[in-house]
Give the backbone structure.
Amino acid sequence: MSTLEFDGLVCDLDGVLYRGVEPVPGVAEAIDRVRASGIRVVFATNNATKTLAQYVERLRRFDVEIGEDDIVTSAAVTGEEVTRRGWSGRTVFLIGTDGTRVALEDAGVVLVDGIPARTADIAVVSSTARFDYQSLATAAFAVRNGADFLASNADPTFPAADGLWPGAGAMLAAVETASGRKAEVMGKPNPPMMQAIARRLEGCNKIAVVGDQPSTDLAGGRSMGWATILVLSGVTDAVAAAALDPAPDVVIPSLVDLPPLLGVPHV
């Protein structure tokens, strides 16, 4: 295979840098080698459960040094979109955790719960292990009553150390079914998140996206005209990868296999 050339890299997290609480072996060195070659790296995840600060802390535990400006989450993009639309001060009912809650609070909205949430101005669905019938009913009431309806992402699953767990998309499907309306999805591969990533890579001329989810990571990259690199360390195995149409530009076992394709020496 010929040497790849690009100056910007969009790197997914779940299934690429780690699975659950365990890092993919060798990823910290791989990132160091990519950066040492002059390639700008932005990390992007549809997982909206953590704040930017929590992701920075987590990656530093894996010896990957980043700042909050180096990472884009679907939760952060949801907050950015609320700000862009001038929705500060409006009421929001949220199905989600701290990652999305903090992003929304930073955008200046008022989070509501209980009976008042049935008439919230905005309903936001993200991922939470505390999803229950009451939150489903409240969100459905709000959406049927005319709330603007946003979702951080529509991923049906996410990879953990012990297998695939239900993702935000599973909860979103329930709310959409109960309310009879479709949400506007903020995360990959949709424009709000892809445009947020592009803003952080402004000035880069050749960008590649590396991920394990063809329907989000790779589809988002293709929508922007970027090269697509599929890793087999997450939800997609070699058999599934071979059947993909359109095919990724590159398929590699893990992120560790990327630096040699760039002609990047060991640091």
